[in-house]
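User: C-alpha cells in, sequence out, please.
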C-alpha cells in the first residue's frame, strides 16, 4: 500500500515496558516509519549515541530550546527534562513518513491538545510485577529509582484510557503485529479521504 500522507503517532508506555524494542521490531517490517529523536537532560546510558538515541542537553541548553520555541512539547520526568524538537517531526510528516513520538504521558497529553488527529497508542506491561521484574533485569537503575519508576507507571496506567489504542506488551511478536495492523488501518482511513 502506498502511503500518500505523513502521520504522527504517539507511543507511550511506562519505563521498562519495551517501547523502544517494539519500535525496533516495527522498523524491521516497515520502511515508512521514523522515530522523532527526543532531547533530554538525563545522562546517556551505555551505548547511547547523541543525535541517534537522544539529543543529550544540559539543563541550560534545554531551557534555551524551550525559550526559542524549538520544542513541540516537553515535560519533566524522573527529575530530567524530555522534549520533542519541532524540526524533525515536521520534516518526517512532509516526507510522507509515519513519525513516531515515543514519549511519556504528560508530553503525550500536550501533543493530543496541539495535534488532535495524531494516533495515540499506550503500551502496558502484563502486570506491575512483570514490569518490576523487567526493570530489575535491565540493571540500569538502583532500587530507589526502580520504585520511583513503578510509582510513575501506576500513575501513567491510570491515564491509558485517554489514548485511542491500548496494547499489552506480553508477547513481543503479538504486540508488534497489533500495532502494525493499527498503522495499516489508520493509513487506509487517511488515504481514502
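Assistant: Sequence out:
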Amino acid at each position: 500500500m502506498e502511503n500518500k500522507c505523513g502521520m504522527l503517532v504517539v507511543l507511550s508506555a511506562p519505563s521498562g515496558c519495551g517501547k523502544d524494542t517494539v519500535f525496533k521490531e516495527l522498523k524491521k517490517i516497515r520502511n515508512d516509519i521514523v522515530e522523532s529523536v527526543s532531547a533530554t537532560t538525563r545522562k546517556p546510558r551505555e551505548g547511547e549515541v547523541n543525535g541517534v538515541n537522544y539529543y543529550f542537553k544540559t539543563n541550560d541548553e534545554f531551557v534555551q530550546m524551550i525559550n526559542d520555541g524549538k520544542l513541540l512539547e516537553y515535560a519533566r520526568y524522573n527529575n530530567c527534562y524530555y522534549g520533542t524538537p519541532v524540526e524533525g517531526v515536521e520534516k518526517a510528516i512532509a516526507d510522507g513518513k509515519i513519525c513516531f513520538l515515543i514519549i511519556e504521558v504528560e508530553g503525550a497529553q500536550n501533543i493530543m491538545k496541539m495535534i488532535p488527529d495524531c494516533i495515540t497508542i499506550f503500551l502496558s506491561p502484563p502486570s506491575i510485577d512483570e514490569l518490576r521484574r523487567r526493570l530489575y533485569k535491565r540493571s540500569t537503575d538502583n532500587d530507589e529509582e526502580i520504585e520511583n519508576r513503578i510509582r510513575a507507571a501506576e500513575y501513567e496506567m491510570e491515564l491509558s484510557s485517554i489514548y485511542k489504542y491500548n496494547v499489552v506488551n506480553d508477547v513481543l511478536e503479538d504486540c508488534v503485529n497489533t500495532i502494525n495492523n493499527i498503522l495499516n488501518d489508520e493509513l487506509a482511513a487517511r488515504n481514502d479521504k
